[in-house]
Amino acid sequence: MSQFNIAVIPGDGIGTEVIPEGIKALEAAAAKHGVELNFTHFDWSCETYHRTGRMMPEDGLDQLKQFDSIFLGAVGFPGVPDHISLWGLLLPIRRAFNQYVNLRPVRLFEGLQSPLANKQAGDIDFYVVRENVEGEYSNIGGIQYEGTDDEVVSQQSIFTRKGTDRILKYAFDLAQSRDKKHLSSATKSNGLFHSMPYWDSRVEAMAERYPDVKVDQFHIDIFTANLVRMPEFYDVIVGSNLFGDILSDLGPACTGTIAIAPSANINPEKEFPSMFEPVHGSAPDIAGQNIANPIGTVWAAAMMMQHLGCDDMHDTIMGAIETVIRDQLALTRDMGGNASTQELGQAIADII
Ligand code: ATP
Ligand code: MG
Questions:
Q1: What is the mean pLDDT of residues 196-225?
Q2: Does residue 278 lie in a domain region?
Q3: Whole-prediction pTM
Q4: Whose CA is nearest to atom 29 of ligand 1?
Q5: Which residues line ligand 1 (CB under 6 A)?
Q6: Which of 178, 260, 278, 349 has the smallest set of CB atoms within 10 Å of its CB?
Q7: Complex ipTM, two decimals?
Q8: Nearest-angstrom CA–CA distance, 250 and 255
Q9: Does residue 86 register a pLDDT over 90?
Q10: Has the keyword Manganese been applied to this entry (predicted)?
């Protein structure tokens, strides 16, 4: 019997409401497929920060290292600046465990209405592959002449050859494994003078190794316009940390609700645990109301099991998500229903 140890960090806001629903789905699927899952909960959050001055203990990363995977809700809450919740928990985990791939699938499910006209299930079905540890999200830079009229702020981006090539390789491999074999790279080579032409040149170099993959490169501005105009064009999208981030909110928005979108922070070499979470944040505006949609978290749980080699558990969980949406069994408000977080989570677990 396979056995996995999962570190669970529900975090803040609706993170604490959706994670139990993800665990319900995992437990049901594990029982069905004879897999043993052991969950260990960590209460690391903005509340921990208020109490202790840290989002997680000093040896937090050491504690997480021994797990097979990390299952995260969301961190961040009003009263704690975003850079503290990000740099105090999320980014250190992504970086220490070399989770350099952020994989975000985007699909229009049967039963959901896209805000784009005339889109059917199947028209929207692509992956955003986002570079997750370098690029524009660096803490290099700073302020000079602070408080004077001459104040200057700089913010550096870092693109390494290794970092660029490995994310591109992951995206090309993914494209090659799919029917369309189509990779689109998001850049901005006319505005970002050094980094983006470099990225483009590495895409071209990598493309030579994948003659069967069709490749195009677009500037991020027209890219976003095209994504809304003709989402069916896209198959695998690859972008830097910033552009990947933007596209992976835009993508799910085209499928009816961002709340169903999952996000996998992957260390493809499996030297360290990977981390699975919904794309959405802690949503303070709806926290505590039991109306948050847990599907992004349940889908993230399915991706976690696929990463751990349990494709059957992944398929079972995805089948249950498809059924619950298609048959409108229990939909939360953002999907046009009036079910609670728990009712939707339970409906998924019951189908499993
Ligand atoms: P972050 O900076 O962490 O990404 P954010 O400011 O982008 O956070 P979210 O927390 O993702 O914000 O929420 C954005 C909007 O989407 C909010 O209005 C929120 O209520 C809604 N939303 C987010 N997640 C869900 C969910 N699971 N169910 C229903 N609505 C959601
Ligand atoms: Mg956001």
A1: 97
A2: yes
A3: 0.94
A4: 292
A5: 14, 18, 74, 76, 258-259, 280-283, 285-286, 292-293, 296, 334
A6: 178
A7: 0.94
A8: 9
A9: no
A10: yes
